[in-house]
Design a protein that fits this description.
Blueprint (H helix, E strand, L loop, with lengths): L2 H19 L2 H6 L1 E8 L8 H10 L4 E14 L2 E13 L6 E13 L5 E8 L2 E2 L2
Parallel strand pairs: 1-5
Antiparallel strand pairs: 2-3, 3-4, 4-5, 4-6
């Protein structure tokens, strides 16, 4: 495994850990400023909308796992295909479980850090 592959795997692990802890600032630091998210049923959105939606979830607890199924380096760009299982549990509410794949494009920025630049999230309700 190359240093870049290890760094990308660490981005995913850091994202998952920060999400479990509710550490939005760490998650935001793993994104480029021009990040674009694509999810079913919504127009593509960026970092500010991601942050607002995350803050709007309040004390919802997030848990989950991510398995990188494919990782390809292309110079200062890379893509990963992940299999994700996640659960969001609002305070006093019922857990919502989702699973599926994401296709994520990462960019190695001027500071040498890999950050998420584009993300197509295809998670669906898990039954």
């Amino acid at each position: 495994m190359t240093d870049d592959e290890a760094a990308i795997r660490q981005v995913v692990e850091t994202w998952m850990t920060a999400s479990r802890k509710g550490d939005l600032e760490t998650v935001l630091g793993l994104m480029t400023d021009d990040v674009v998210f694509m999810v079913p049923g919504k127009e593509p959105f960026g970092k500010e909308a991601f942050a607002a939606a995350s803050r709007g979830m309040g004390e919802t607890k997030i848990d989950g796992t991510s398995e990188i199924v494919e990782l390809k380096l292309l110079g200062d760009w890379a893509y990963i295909r992940n299999r994700i299982e996640m659960t969001a549990t609002p305070p006093g509410g019922e857990a919502v479980r989702r699973s599926g794949y994401t296709l994520t494009i990462l960019r190695k920025e001027g500071d040498g850090r890999w950050r998420l630049a584009r993300d197509a999230n295809l998670l669906a309700p898990k039954v």
